# Entry
Amino acid sequence: MGQLNKQFDSLVKALTPELYRYAMGLCHNPDTANDLVQETFLRAWRSQNTLRDVKTARAWLYTILRNENARLYERQRPEVRDPHTLPAVPVRGYDTSTEAFTLRRALTRLELQYREPLLLQTIGGFSCKEIGGMLDLKPNTVLTRLFRARKMLREMLENTQQSELEKLS
Amino acid sequence: MNCLEFRRLLLQDPFADDPAMHEHEQACGQCNHYAKEQRAQEARMRDMFDQITPPPELAENIQLAVRLDQRGQSRRQVWFAAAASVLLIVGATITSLVTESWERGNMALAQSVLNHVNDEAHHLREAGPVDNTRVRFVFARFGAELVGDVGQINFAAECLMRKRNGVHLVLPGKQGPVTAFFMPGEMTEKAIPVESERFQGLISPTPWGSVAVVGEHGENLQGLAEQLGNAVRWPAEQASVGAGDLTAPAVFVAQK
# Structure
């Protein structure tokens, strides 16, 4: 049991930061992100015997977090803060530049089916095949969604830039 | 590779290491500019997330929550084991009490049968035989019907046995008179032996109650209770109707 605890503690220390970032990308709420990461590790601990390969632990934890987020929305629909406003709780390293706020707002406007693969690739660095496995999608579908996600994001940012310029002129 | 193909691949993965893409990017100024913009946006997005740092206590809180959960599980396991033990003891006690109660009930029934034989010992002297119509009549009062041979009957009457009415018969045996009680509603799980200084017998379970046969020591009673039980057909609801039935009058008639 001691060895198991040590291994799990190492996993918690190594993966908490990136899982927290992924959670923030999904919910934009530091409190909810905290809860999501904690619940993810608790669920993982309780069902660690179902994990056959330690190498897949990272993808497994991302999948648990994603499911936990979906469950949370089904249960209570937590408040999603407008990414244009500062979080109620201070977040260390939170980019407060105008560009970052604009980018966060555009990301929030993306439908979840496009946002999820984009965050998994950007934050998690997962390949299309891995993302497909996590989202239960074919790799080609993942590629299509990534293409559309970036295209929409680009258009939204360009439109924002355009309207900002119009306001100034 | 044309521009459309290049931009499709670029938006799928802006940092893809594809020689064909590099080649097109070098050759096409517009796509080169487009790719630079896209990679800059991508880097901005990565930086934005990479800079976010979770609260310093989060990892510790998670470890603590896991430890508490672990302890809770162990505690639950201990509680489950304790609860299982208690249930086992309670179950064993109940079983023992039920068995004891059954045993006491069986002994009480056997004693009632013997008491009844002794109290009405005068019926043992009935010479008979009783008319078959009379026997049918006594059983008919319970809705029962004679369907087999019960042999010679020297006495037949409805009587009260432990708060329930039943049929009391006396038959001639080899060692002396044999008493038979048909006791609807007196359910027993298994055969109960009846024993006294003078008499011996057996109470046999039937689907509607039980049949007791009691005779002198040395009398061969083996199979008699079963034979008598099979000779009478009782209505299916008899057991429940007969149970606790105090409304039907007890008739003690010595048929000469």
In short: Helices of chain B lie at 3-12, 19-27, 29-50, 58-119, 132-140, 224-231, 238-242.
